[in-house]
Amino acid sequence: MNMIDPEAERKEILRYYRRLLRHAKPFLKDNDAKIIKKAFNTSVEAHKDMRRKSGEPYILHPLAVAQIAVEEIGLGTTSIVAALLHDVVEDTDMDVEEIEREFGPSVARIIEGLTKISGVFDYGTSQQAENFRKMLLTLSDDVRVILVKLADRLHNMRTLDSMPRHKQLKIASETMYLYAPLAHRLGLYAIKSELEDLYLKYTDTDTYKDISTKIRQTRSARGKFIKDFISPIEEELRRHGFKFNIKGRPKSIYSILKKIKKQNITFEEIYDLFAIRITLDVPLEHEKAACWQVYSIITDFYQPNPDRLRDWVNTPKANGYESLHTTVMSKSGQWVEVQIRTKRMDEIAERGYAAHWKYKSDGSGGESGLELWINKVRDMLENNTANALEFMDEFRKNLFVEEVFVFTPKGELLILPDRATALDFAFEIHSQIGLQCLGAKVNQKLVPLSFRLRNGDQVEILTSQKQKPNEEWLDYVVTSKARSRIKEYLREERKNKSEQGKVMLERRLSYLKVPETQGNLNKIMAFFNVPSVQDLHYRIATGHIDIKNIKEVIFTAQAERGASMLEPKTFDREVQKIRGVNSDMLVIGENTSNMAYKVASCCNPIPGDEVFGFETGGDGIEIHRTNCKKGIELMSNYGNRIIKAKWTDQKELAFLAGIRIKGTDRVGLVNDLTRIISNSLRVNMRSITIDSHDGIFEGNIMVFVNDTGHLDKLIQRMGKVTGVLTVERFD
Length: 731
Known about the structure:
alpha+beta; five-stranded mixed sheet; 20 strands; about 15% strand
């Protein structure tokens, strides 16, 4: 172990601190520098004996978080102080009250929001979800809580290298599940893209390296292309006297991969690998006109794609994003996305919410889409009786939403999330109208509750006193307001019904002269296979259980099915019994008979894939690939049920994998492919479907292989067959 040089470390810490002050300087007021210094000293003292996993002094982390808050999000003194102190309460015996005395209520409130809840959680809830919910509660008072949290998370992701593998997966997944969508929603696009790229770097390292290498290799060709593309536009803009700045920027690695997967194309086939951004320097009142004028100049040179015009200048996105996007055809036959915006819009696009504050002091009033969203979140928090996990799920649905713009009969504009229905619209107007909604007229035509609204629809709601919500309504709504109101109603309804059922059951038992003891109730529940007393009452009231079927025989015959189904299976204890307390690595494949596991159908992992295990509660352990979509959700919500897992070497087991092939059709091709599969590698084929049209064929083949090495060999050999263009594995 190399010796630590305290003097060198002290210098390094001061270097970081001075850099922070340099960036903060422009906006510091009277006493700010003193307060920041005090926070810095408090933090140094609190963390003096602590080190990060990488071995460096812990204080460098709060400093880095503060730096991100200033430099990349554009926050001020309060946030710097909160960032410097954000781990103090958790790691030392200083408490929030002390911080409030020393640094004031705003800082204390932000830190309170960032401090994790400790303690014991009920089975079936998740500590992460509870902490997240708590953090959001503070969001509605002070959005800086989330912004500092994002800075903290970004620094953790940038330094994830020193973490153990299972921690990397958990942190990366949680980031992808929650924090990237949150950054998107708060308009922090640069941070969102970096979080997504880092997520990819740790969960699907090969793909990440592959794409970043390709981006590097094509850099110079791209540069030349961009130069040729923009030179005529530059000339024309100068001629019109515009002050502007043009730059090309490559897409993020994650968004390239998303495109490759979604459109099923190769890296080389992505046409808009980069976008060109034109930023204008014009006064506020000329912004719209200037953007459209530049649009018309560009389309004089290049033919635009009419389906790809996006006008967020007239109707900004909910997170305040404003810009005009068009995709045009270059002279070399490539599509290029061009973004036109002003300096003010650019700052809002890059810095999101923090930039809004900067421009809000102009006294223009009016709520931005973002504030409306934060109010919605507040509403959601106040009216949410669901458990934290349900809440998280709801919350995520609200993050990545595109919007539809619809109008009331009087012509007022309402903005609803994409896929919203007539029923959502009714609840948006008023809960009571929602609960009594019969149907709607959209553009004067009658439509059902489940009708999906489109941009520009005019909606009139029809109600009736007799209408009542039912379970099915939950399938018709996407807004959390509608969902929580419907659930609330159904809960009440259920409670009332259970009360009726309870009375019916009491009468029946007294008629049978059977005492109403817990033991007897358990017998009835076991007989009808009902999980709880309330359910039993409810089913009796609704007639699902015919009261006449409750007979003496239930109580006399020793019911075979005892009460065992009533206790939730204490899975954790079982696992400990089998695995021993410490062995936390699950090895899959060696006659793993003592541990029940199954391969998850969502991602079909095979030996050689990086995998993790997840304790399901019922079926033992499920094995997922580390880059599985569903896996992300599991890791971010139930980090404590994740088990490190790896495959052992084994030869005799076969796993199902899918291979997709494309190529030019010719006689005998299928024959060649199947021969390779069956002869060369003794692979069994389960199914093959090949579809051929206009001389091109596409095929999916399902084969049984031993592991990834085996599969790769097979893919290589198939790739060599004449006429085959691409061969790839699919989930």
